[in-house]
Amino acid sequence: KLTLLRAHPDLAGKAELTDDSTREQAGAGLDTLSSDEFERFTSMNEAYKAKFEFPFIYAVKGADKYQILESFEERLENPPDSEFHTACAQVCRIFRFRIEDRVSK
């Protein structure tokens, strides 16, 4: 599970994304961040990885950048074992959203 979590790209990062991730992040406004917002995402990504040793994972579909940043702040306070389970649950949500998208087309 840890390998799966560590394979995820940073939110609002510069990594090449899948088409699904690109669409989902754009829907949350992560493709149009101001330079200050981008810096905030970058610093929070780094703080999160330093604490938990895997990237912040959030099923962004239906969320906006403000909700994501709020979740970042809240989840940075979690203990590592709790956050590991939260991150795994977020991977499952992402998977469910993507399956639902495919089935509804």
In helices, the fraction of residues equals: 55-70%
Distance between the termini: 30 Å
| Oligomer state of the chains in this structure | single chain
Strands, total number? 0
Name the structural class: mainly alpha
- What value does the average pLDDT take? 92
The major beta sheet can be summarized as:
none
SSE pattern, N- to C-terminal: HHHHH
Principal-axes geometry comes out as globular
Number of helices: 5
Ranges with pLDDT <50 over ≥5 residues?
none
Strand content: under 5%
What is the alpha-carbon Rg in Å? Answer: 13 Å
Write up what this structure looks like.
The chain has 105 residues and is mainly α. Helix content is 65%, strand content 0%. It is built from five helices and no strands. The longest helix is centred in the last third of the chain and has 25 residues, at 80-104. It is globular, with a radius of gyration of 13 Å.
List the SSEs and their pairings:
Layout: H1 2-6, H2 19-27, H3 35-52, H4 65-75, H5 80-104
Q: In brief, what are we looking at here?
A:
This protein is mainly α. The chain is built from 5 helices and no strands. The longest helix is centred in the C-terminal third of the chain and has 25 residues.
Relevant terms:
mainly alpha; single chain; 5 helices
